[in-house]
């Protein structure tokens, strides 16, 4: 079985839902601790209730496009995990702000603007989903537990309600996007939104699509197949000292167990409490150099976001509901995917493969972009390309051809189509698992061209 995991998936849909008596929480944030002066972009935060009795309260950050918000695409970005907060995308991947490592302001890590923010060409919703992710919370203990199918359904409901509450974006092309494990749920969300349109749900959603990442079935290989077990052990021995998220980065975690083990990514930012391991101070220039006098691990960068997000004044500025979140964590480890496991205490991995949903989308009037870092050993791009080939699409104008950013090779692309469906698959040269984090300029240029319906 193949499990496509998402790193850049976009599908366009038009939503229109009418539930008049539901009121969402919305706050316009004009300043943030760590940034000097008023924000030069429009930031809204808030909650939208989903599920039975709206027991799940999903928190979001919404940044209007710095270009033409009335025309530019409306995209929702989902973090991986599942259970990882979307603040990681806001600071490290596609958001409007960056952390100035080693600098502090207002007693929190200092912030600066990101020149490669996707908000320059799109209206972006950064969603904390599912359930107990980031600042999201539940009103009942029963609502805490989630799954692939529940997460997809609740996110689709969120999108309809968001557009209902922001009717000026009804005509904007909508893209369902995200990274890593969200590739499982994104095609499901997209198909559910299409089905809702077909059934006449209001408001109608205007949807397009982006996606990355796929994985094989080694995690559930047959224990009785001794040759298979031997081969897997041999693989693990050979990759034990390699960082599988980005093979060129220092290896800071326990020995890599590529398949059939616990979660191979144990970022420091995932610890249970903030106080358990104080962050190391960085000089501002060290962000571009992962190895300084002593090896500095990428996971330690995330500690700055954790410190910022747990500050009382930050929570007040974002209008986080008091008492709903005891501590903001980079990832909820009671949800996060573990190879070989069917469930975690708060999440059930009940979709083995989402390829069937991609097959359904090929029958839709839909355009998709799938991109993958070519230095990602966690979900290698060759696996992504393999499952795309099972869709039996026709290769059109590009067949593994290079594309260029600032005069340099940015990676390779292949374009596919079937009737009204189109798909572009692109690798990002030198990027790891979370491609926009490693190659922000290349990824920004790629999506800027794609959103504008220009060749990558």
Automatic annotation (TrEMBL):
Record keywords: Lyase included?
no
Q: Which Gene Ontology biological process is one annotated for this entry?
A: proteolysis
Q: Which InterPro entries match?
A: AB_hydrolase_fold, Peptidase_S10, Ser_caboxypep_his_AS
Q: Please report the name of this protein according to its UniProt entry.
A: Peptidase S10, serine carboxypeptidase, Alpha/Beta hydrolase fold protein
Q: Which GO MF terms are attached to this record?
A: acyltransferase activity, transferring groups other than amino-acyl groups; serine-type carboxypeptidase activity
Q: Highest taxon of the source?
A: Eukaryota
* Species of the source: Ambrosia artemisiifolia
Q: What are the leading ranks of the lineage?
A: Eukaryota, Viridiplantae, Streptophyta, Embryophyta, Tracheophyta
| Keyword entries, A-Z | Carboxypeptidase, Glycoprotein, Hydrolase, Protease, Signal
Could you say which residues form the signal peptide?
A: 1-25
The family annotation for this protein states: Belongs to the peptidase S10 family.
């Amino acid at each position: 079985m193949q499990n496509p995991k998402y790193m850049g998936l976009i599908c366009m849909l038009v939503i229109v839902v009418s539930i008049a008596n539901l009121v969402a929480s919305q706050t316009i944030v004009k300043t943030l601790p760590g940034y000097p002066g008023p924000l030069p972009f429009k930031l809204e935060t808030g909650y939208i209730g989903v599920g039975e009795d709206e027991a799940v309260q999903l928190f979001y950050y919404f940044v209007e496009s710095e270009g033409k918000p009335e025309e530019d695409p409306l995209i929702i970005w989902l973090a991986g995990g599942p259970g990882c907060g979307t603040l990681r995308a806001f600071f490290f991947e596609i958001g409007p702000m960056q952390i100035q490592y080693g600098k502090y302001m207002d007693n929190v890590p200092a912030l600066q603007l990101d020149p490669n923010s996707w908000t320059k060409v799109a209206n972006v919703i950064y969603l904390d989903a599912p359930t107990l992710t980031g600042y999201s919370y539940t009103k009942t203990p029963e609502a805490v537990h989630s799954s692939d199918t529940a997460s997809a359904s609740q996110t689709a409901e969120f999108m309809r309600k968001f557009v209902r509450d922001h009717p000026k974006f009804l005509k904007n092309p909508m893209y369902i996007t995200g990274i890593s494990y969200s590739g499982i749920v994104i095609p499901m969300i997209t198909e559910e939104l299409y089905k809702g349109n077909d059934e006449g749900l209001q408001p109608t959603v205007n949807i397009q699509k982006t996606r990355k990442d796929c994985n094989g079935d080694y995690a559930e290989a047959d224990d009785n197949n001794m040759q298979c077990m031997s081969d897997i052990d041999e693989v693990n021995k050979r990759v034990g000292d390699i960082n599988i998220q980005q093979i060129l980065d220092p290896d800071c975690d326990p020995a890599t167990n590529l398949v059939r083990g616990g979660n191979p990514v144990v970022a420091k930012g995932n610890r249970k409490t903030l106080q358990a391991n104080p962050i190391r101070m960085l000089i501002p220039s060290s962000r571009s150099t992962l190895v300084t006098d002593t090896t500095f691990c990428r996971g330690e960068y995330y500690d700055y976001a954790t410190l910022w997000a747990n500050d009382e004044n930050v929570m007040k500025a974002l209008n986080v509901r008091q008492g709903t979140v005891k501590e903001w964590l980079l990832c909820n480890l009671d949800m996060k995917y573990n190879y070989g496991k069917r469930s975690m205490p708060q999440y059930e991995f009940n979709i083995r493969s989402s390829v069937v949903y991609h097959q359904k989308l090929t029958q839709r009037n839909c355009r998709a972009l799938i991109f993958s870092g070519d230095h990602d050993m966690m979900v290698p791009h060759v696996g992504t390309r393999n499952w795309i080939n099972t869709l039996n699409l026709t290769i059109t104008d590009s067949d593994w051809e290079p594309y260029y950013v600032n005069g340099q090779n940015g990676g390779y692309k292949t374009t596919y189509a079937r009737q009204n469906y189109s798909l572009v698959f692109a690798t990002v040269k030198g990027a790891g698992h979370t491609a926009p984090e490693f190659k922000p300029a290349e990824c920004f240029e790629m999506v800027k061209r794609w959103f504008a319906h220009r060749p990558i």
